[in-house]
Design brief:
It contains 12 helices and 2 strands; from the N terminus they run αααααααβααααβα. By secondary structure, it is mainly alpha-helical. Mean pLDDT is 86; it is low at 247-256.
Amino acid sequence: MKKVFFRTFAYLIDVLLLGLILTLVVSTIPFFNDKKIKELNKSYTDVVNEYIEITKSNDKYLEDKIINEDEFNEIKNKYPNLSLVVEKHLNEEVEKEKLNEELFDYTKDYARESDYKANKLNLGRFILELVITILYFGVLQFVLKGQTLGKKIFKLFVVDEKDKLPSLNTFLIRSLFTSTICFSIINSILALTLSFKNYSNVYNYITGVSSFYLVFMYAIVVFREDGKGLHDMLLKTHIKMLNEENNDSKTLDYKEKKKKNEKDTN
């Protein structure tokens, strides 16, 4: 279990480091449309914040179950993005639950459309992220003899079934399993080739599969006795922990067995 925790924290450190590198690269190269992405994210955040606030205020506006002109003008000033939803019920009786449901649906659709627009702009960024991921988890890990910076901190390293350093090809293939970036690239390609309506039909499936993949990959590592992930089983690799002297030939498992044998002998 100790190895699983260390492996998890090592991965989180590596992901944070990769995110920092990607952010620095993207922010310095205009090609990646970073400004447009930020504008889309801000717009979506504004709508979500409006939704949260207006649902809190609906008790006041719908005290008599009717939104009059004065109330609507106030809503229009405070919540400009959501005022179109409210305008449909101007001067007519409406239940708070019904209005909140319509506001939620609008916010959800807005989020999906924002994601659609962002994915259209993000293909280059996702490809860059894939390249950086392969370089970091593939090439660098091979150069550092089975370790990333995160693994170095927790004294972990990758070996093959013979406890030797895997080949570069093994590390390159292994790096493709480390994130959901491939799903992001597929999402982006679909956004570029499909209309928003068709994209919306497949959106839930892709995000669902992506989320399931992360949970499934982590669950395998946690619940297997040997702590192997799917990529370890497919590529015949596993994670070991260095001992205090950082001697590759003597892992913590080896030391524990040695101590047990010595104790049994005595």
